[in-house]
Structures are given as C-alpha cells and as structure tokens.
C-alpha cells in the first residue's frame, strides 16, 4: 500500500470512527474541546506511523488507545489540575494497565450511550443554531473546518470561531455529559432533529452559491439521522425525520441536469429516483407510524413525500391527500410556509384559482416578505391562469430575492417565458 493509499484509508477510518472516538474520550475527560484535541492528536499519530507500519486490524481501537495514552500523559504533565482531574488521571492510569487485553472493549464499551450523549451535547440549546450545525458536523460528521466552510459557503475563520465558541460555551455552562430524561429529553431531541434537518436542507436546496444541491451535506445528515434512530428507536419523530430525508434524497439524481440546471419535481425523470432509498424511507415511515401517539411534523412531512414517491407519474399523485396532510401539519405547527405549500397542493387538486386564493392571503404575511418562494409560487399559479404579465413580475421578484445562482437563472427563464407568452403581435 502506497503512502497516498494509506492516507486515503486514514481519512476513511476517521470519518467512520471519529464520532465514536470523541464520544468515548468525552466520557473520560468530561470536556468536548479536550476530547476533540486528543482525538486529533491520535489522528496525527496515525498519519505519522501507519504509512510505515500499515493500517492496524482494528484502527478504531488503535486510535482510542493512543488518545487515552495522550490523555494520561497530559494529566501527568499538568501540575495545576484540579483535584477532580487528578482523580481522573488515576482512573485513566488504572485503565491503561488493561489496554493491551481490552482494546476492542475500549472502543465498543458503552459506545451507543457515549454517541447519544455526544449528540445531545453537540445540539444543546445553549448554543446558537449556526454553532450547533458547525459543531455537529465537526464532532459527529467528522468534517474538517475547511469542509464545513466550503459546504456552507462561509469563510473558514468564521466556522472555526463558531466551533471554538461552541466548545467554550459548553464548558462554561457546565453542560453535563449525559442523556436528558423526561420533558428535557423531548425538548433536547427536537433540537437534535432540527440541526440534522437544517444540515440536510442546506444540502438539498442550497440557499446560496452556484450549485442547486450539495449532496455531501445530505449524506452527512442522513448518516446522523440513522445513528440517532438506532440510539433512540422508540422515538417516532426520529424515524419520521429519517423517512423524510430518505425519500427526499431518493430524488437527488433527477433534480439537476448534467449541466447543473435544476429540474422541478413534476418535470423530473422518475426512473432516476433511487428505489432503494424510497423503500428505506417508507420502512422508516412505517416504524414511525407504528409507535404510539399522534403523528409529529416530520412524520407528516414524510407522509407527504411518500405520496410523491408512490406515484409513478405526476398525474398519479394523490394531491387531495397531500392537501389534507398539509392541513393537518398546519394545525399541528402553524406556519406561513406550510400554508404556502398547502396552496400548491390545493392548486394541483382543485385548480390554480383555489391555490391562488390562499397565496393571496399570504402576501401580507411579514415573515414571507423576503421569501423568494412566495412570488415564485404566485407566479406559477398566475401563469396557469393565463395572467402572464403578472406572472412575469412575480418571477422577476422571486429571482431578485433568491441567493442561489441556479435558482435565479431558472426564475428568470420562467419570467422570459411569460413575457413571450403575453406578447401578441399586431394584426
């Protein structure tokens, strides 16, 4: 194996093992920042040694053992540690004696609990949403600061500062390394799911930049969602979110042309939809619906996505059911955006006039004043009603509001089509 092959193997191992490694280390050192630093030290050691010695049979255990040894050495060197750290040093020293015979156990012992604790720490509400996203991708997604910055099109120093501040905030707030219980668990779990879905949505429909999609973020969010679903299998909304992401991700190949131009849902080649992801999504939705309790917002959105997934053609879509599901979602989580989506379903089920009536009610909604999809939807409905001049103006306004270059081009093309349709040459 060449040095470059070894480095690729190390990168793959890091993506797979980093979350488990950091989670296990946090259990010992009780500090997210220190745990990540120790994990990075172990990674550097691997980069130095594995090209010569080869990748070990159990690379995760090797990284864990190396990181623990570094933790012990650091605790020994620091003469100003508090007494609790001194006690921790003794505990780690005792564990070190058994490292040689218990490497596999060291990496696997309580790993599920450790990962779950790390999930809840990374997505703690004490952090800002941006900080939660950055820290989650860093600790659980195994992404570098550069990769996170590139994915979200923000400067690398900005992401680095968010991560540093997040770790400092967690330390200063004395956030315990534990899984919350009762009402706190439910509240914190909603934060976890929100962060994962934010990551997925940024990958599925990029808010800024030149690309319509960033598939890597979708894959990271799906992986995180699947991990959480395994860790808390009795939580219906976790399965609902996984179902929603699986089904939406199934359309990825059909959402863009080879040139990168976006393709809208009803114009997509459904033969390109990933049937394996659809099947996984429908199975996750069944798990969500099998658990007791009413459907939550993610399960309802997954049920809507399932209506599209089950339709072999756009004409076969059960739009009346989709409209009903949106109405149920609006009652559960009232939102102008949900109402906007319901207007689309109503237009498909009962005609564009029915949808436009609801959209017109939303034009005075302050929260949608700068939301580009409101004039985009209104323009589409006006065009279907033959009101092309009004539709063109709406598409142009939508183009001025979006920050995504691909979407802007699409909207301007639709505005041009309306201008062409409205032109009537003189007799």
Please give a structural write-up:
With 427 residues, the chain is mainly alpha-helical. It is built from 20 helices and 2 strands. It has helices at residues 3-29, 32-53, 59-77, 83-96, 103-108, 111-122, 129-139, 145-152, 156-172, 182-204, 215-231, 236-249, 275-290, 297-310, 319-332, 336-350, 352-362, 373-384, 388-401, 405-422; strands spanning 208-209, 403-404. It has a two-stranded parallel sheet with strand order 1-2. The longest helix has 27 residues, at 3-29. The chain is elongated and about 85 Å long.
| Cα-to-Cα separation, first versus last residue | 77 Å
The major sheet is characterized as: 2 strands, parallel
- What would you call the structural class? mainly alpha
Q: List segments where confidence is low: pLDDT < 50 over at least 5 consecutive residues.
A: 97-111
Tell me, briefly, the overall form. elongated
* Total beta strand runs: 2
* Radius of gyration from CA coordinates: 25 Å
Strand numbers in spatial order across the main sheet: 1-2
């Amino acid at each position: 194996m060449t040095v470059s092959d070894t480095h690729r193997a190390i990168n793959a191992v890091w993506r797979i093992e980093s979350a488990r490694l950091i989670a296990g280390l946090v259990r010992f050192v009780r500090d997210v920042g220190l745990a990540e630093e120790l994990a990075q030290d172990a990674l550097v050691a691997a980069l130095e040694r594995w090209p010569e010695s080869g990748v070990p049979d159990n690379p995760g255990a090797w990284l864990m053992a190396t990181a623990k040894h570094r933790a012990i050495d650091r605790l020994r060197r620091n003469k100003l540690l508090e007494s609790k750290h001194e006690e921790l040093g003794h505990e780690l020293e005792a564990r070190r004696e058994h490292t040689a015979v218990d490497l596999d156990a060291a990496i696997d012992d309580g790993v599920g609990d450790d990962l779950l604790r790390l999930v809840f720490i990374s997505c703690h509400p004490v952090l800002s949403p941006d900080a939660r996203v950055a820290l989650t991708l860093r600790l659980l997604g195994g992404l570098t600061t550069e990769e996170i910055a590139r994915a979200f099109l923000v400067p690398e120093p900005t992401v680095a500062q968010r991560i540093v501040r997040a770790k400092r905030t967690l330390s200063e707030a004395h956030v315990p390394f534990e899984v919350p219980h009762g009402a706190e668990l439910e509240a914190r779990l909603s934060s976890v799911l929100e962060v994962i879905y934010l990551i997925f949505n940024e990958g599925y429909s990029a808010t800024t930049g030149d690309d319509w999609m960033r598939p890597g973020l979708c894959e990271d969010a799906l992986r995180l969602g699947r991990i959480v679903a395994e860790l808390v299998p009795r939580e219906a909304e976790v399965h609902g979110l996984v179902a929603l992401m699986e089904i939406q991700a199934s359309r990825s190949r059909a959402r863009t042309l080879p040139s990168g131009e976006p393709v809208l849902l009803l114009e997509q080649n459904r033969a390109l939809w990933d049937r394996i992801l659809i099947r996984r999504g429908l199975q996750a939705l069944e798990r969500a619906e099998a658990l007791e309790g009413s459907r939550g917002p993610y399960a309802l959105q997954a049920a809507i996505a399932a209506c599209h997934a089950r339709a072999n053609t756009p004409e076969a879509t059960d739009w009346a059911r989709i409209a009903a599901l949106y109405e149920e979602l609006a009652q559960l989580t009232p939102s102008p955006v949900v109402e906007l989506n319901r207007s689309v379903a109503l237009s498909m089920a009962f005609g564009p006039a029915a949808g436009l009536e609801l959209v017109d009610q939303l034009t005075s909604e302050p929260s949608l004043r700068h939301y580009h999809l409101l004039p985009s939807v209104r323009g589409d409905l006006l065009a279907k009603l033959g009101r092309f001049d009004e539709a063109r103006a709406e598409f142009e306004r939508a183009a001025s509001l979006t920050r995504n270059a691909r979407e802007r081009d699409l909207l301007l093309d639709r505005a041009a089509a309306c201008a062409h349709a409205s032109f009537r040459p003189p007799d």
